[in-house]
Amino acid sequence: MARVKYTDKDVDLVARMMRAEAEGEGKQGMLMVGNVIVNRLKADCLDFGDLRSISDVIYHVQGGNYSFEAVQKGNVFYNRARESEKRLAKQTLDYWREHPSKFALWYFNPYGPCPATWYDQPHSGQYKQHCYYEPAPNSCESVYLG
Question: For residue 86, which of 28, 4, 31, 24 has the smallest C-alpha distance?
Answer without folding.
Answer: 31
